[in-house]
Write a structure and sequence with these properties.
The protein is mostly helical. It is 89% helix and 0% strand. The chain contains 3 helices and no strands. Helix 2 runs antiparallel to helix 3. The relative contact order is 0.12. The mean pLDDT is 82.
Length: 132
């Protein structure tokens, strides 16, 4: 491992824990979400085919909206966990390679030459997104 220090190991451990959590969410929730979506779509088709909507239909649509918003938030949370974890892991790796390259490690210098443009572009994009 080229990035073998306490900070990198801690970042890797945290990354693994968060990624495992996000994967567990996906494994546990995906079948439930799929079944819920299929049932809701079937009910939505029935409601939409009615020429006159009833108050019960409107209540059902409101309930569907609540379920969809809840599921969307859970998926966005999982996505954020994965994204943040990947960013942290990438930063730890980049900083360790940068350190080794500065110490004269030729392999790290080659890796750094490949990584640096992409990493700097990612930082610029991140800063631009935060300014918007």
């Amino acid at each position: 491992m080229l990035y073998d220090d306490d900070k990198a190991r801690d970042a890797a451990a945290d990354f693994k824990q968060q990624l495992d959590k996000a994967r567990q969410f996906a494994a546990d929730e995906a079948p439930k979400i799929s079944a819920t979506m299929k049932a809701m779509m079937a009910e939505l088709e029935v409601i939409m085919q009615k020429p006159q909507k009833t108050p019960e239909d409107i209540a059902m649509l409101e309930e569907m909206e609540t379920v969809l918003k809840t599921q969307l938030k859970r998926m966005m949370d999982a996505k954020a966990i994965i994204g943040e974890s990947l960013t942290g892991q990438s930063t730890a790796f980049y900083n360790q390679i940068k350190k080794l390259a500065a110490e004269g490690n030729e392999e790290a210098q080659k890796i750094m030459a490949d990584l640096q443009p992409s990493y700097q572009a990612m930082l610029r994009e991140s800063m631009n997104n935060n300014l918007q």
